[in-house]
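User: I want to check something. If I give you two sequences, will you return the structure for each one separately, not as a complex?

Assistant: Yes, each is folded on its own. Here is the first sequence with its structure:
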Amino acid sequence: MHVQNIDYTRVDAPSLFCQSLKETGFAVLNHHPISPELINQMYQGWREFFYSDAFTKEKFKFKKETQDGYFPFRSENAKGRKVSDLKEFFHIYRWGQIPDSLRDVSLAMFYALEKFASELLQWVEDFLPENVAEQLSMPLKDMIVDSSNILLRVLHYPPLADDMEKDAVRAAPHEDINLITLLPAATTPGLEVLDTAGNWHEVTCDPGNIVVNVGDMLQMCTQHYYKSTTHRVINPTGADRHTSRFSMPLFLHPRKEVRLSPTHTAVEYLHERLREIGVY
């Protein structure tokens, strides 16, 4: 499996990007328009939040009906898994709760990634076969206009405990629910993607890169032309076991009423999947 690392400024970047998504479900972009300073500010600010006391974090605990806010350590398990993931995280929606000290930087990151994602969706649609594009309920970019479900998730994977159960991992193998995911480089490696032969491959974690992957909703509305690829975050070994990992993927969701297929609207599919992972 070869996940391409593509220079966003190249003339042929759109075609290379879509080729990598088609072949692997993933692509990596460098020289992209998201500010490195903004990324660093986000990681620094949210590091302080996750390192704060439990009382501070619990003030922002998520509401089951809205899914915004702080999800405590081990709140989520991957679909089909009984052992919960070794992570805590915060869900940022444009309308949701955010700590006052982090609001400006978080919304700046949210809107920057959303704008970039809209451009990438256009690339994706431009390279769809005509017969597949004709079956879309609307253009891909139009699916996300004014969407209240677009989600920026800030994750903290704490250092590993010595008494952790054998099967517990930072993020068990899973597929994303949404259209596409944009992931500015995490603070440490660990992301791996599964090929069709059952082999795992590390995805680059170089600063300045953004990893993009296909979600199940894009797979559904393109009739599996683009396929959602299984991925995971593995546990570090050696001295790295005692190091935290931070990441902040943007999950690009359509508006609730958007029809993905004859059987599912976006909100119907989202709620189905949230129930499967135990958070709805």
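And separately, the second sequence with its own structure:
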Amino acid sequence: MLNYDIVVIGGGPAGMAAALKAKECGVDSILILERAESLGGILEQCIHTGFGLHYFGEELSGPEYADRFIKLVHEQKIEYKVDTMALEITDTNVVYAINKTDGLLEIQAKAVILAMGCRERPRGALNIAGTRASGVMSAGTAQKYVNIDGYMPGKKVVILGSGDIGLIMARRMTLEGAEVKIVCELMPYSSGLTRNIVQCLDDFGIPLRLSCTVIDIHGEGRVEGVTIADVDENRRPIPGTEQYIECDTLLLSVGLIPENELTRAVGIDLDPVTSGAIVDEYRETSHPGVFACGNVLHVHDLVDYVTLESQTAGEGAANYVLGKKAEAAYIATKGVNGVRYIVPQKVNLNNGNDVKLYFRVGQTYKNAAISVKYNGEEILRRKRPRLAPGEMENVILKKEMLEKFEADGLIEIGVEV
């Protein structure tokens, strides 16, 4: 059996940032496990710019952003194994993994950091009628074909879903010579960043149709077209609004699902809204010594936020290993009045630091206010000209404020218009 203080599962931006922070905090025995053939995660296929504006203060491509952390991992001599699949985590934090060089690995860890990222929701989850013709794929698959493999998925494209990957691929396919006919979005608002709507759709004259979905896929060997229709407030197609669009490719950008099979198997409590683990301010889960960060915890809009959150998890894991974890005195957090979820779901009053609470709203608001209440009494209020589901918000609870609270209290964040 191998022995490490910290095992990080996932070598993308979350895993690398967490490992580097744990190393900075004084833990030397760290191992990163990555199932792909190289570190970097999904950033390796994200060749567009827009990364690093918050963290580095400059605009980088995905590979450039990842490369900075890969170089730091090498400089800090943090061990890692690529092409390695984690299979199981036991109650005693033994990690089982496998690769073709070492075979089956049995690794005893004092702490485990979950950083497996997320995957795209497939066609099978959508119940779209029609044939199983080729040309239907997720936007991320198309991105890999174009940016990594050098293949062109199609020439006439319809995109279902206005998540950031779908918006970015609308621009990418256009730049490669394809005709993107339309982007359809089931909801009455886009789930992508405003900047991506402007830069990827508006700048290229690509129409975005809200409250609209694909109801049928036509074609036998290859997609020949799709039928779209408007939907009502219950997201059901409205008869008479059907429209046929000729295309040879349908890209799906219909949501991301955290890769939490390992998390679920070890019995960690999951949040029904985020589909990620329930965590405290250092991202420790309900299983002692197991931490979660990045898109496996909740889907982020910016990789910069993934990095910052993962550093928090890395520090938390280091504190756990070094015996510096504060005595527990928790208060809970809850989203109300338009706030779908909050991460972390609980906060230890004894940690002695400011705590940043991340949250998302469930619809678009203009000229609204964010109200933060402790046991029903308002303690913070922030005006926001615009709130949107595609853009993560945050508030900071100062340590001086936390010191005045009592265990078992409740923090609520809501929207007021």
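Because they were folded independently, the notes below concern the second chain alone. Helices lie at 13-24, 62-75, 139-149, 164-175, 194-201, 261-265, 303-321, 399-402. The domain at 1-120+256-325 is CATH 3.50.50.60 (FAD/NAD(P)-binding domain).
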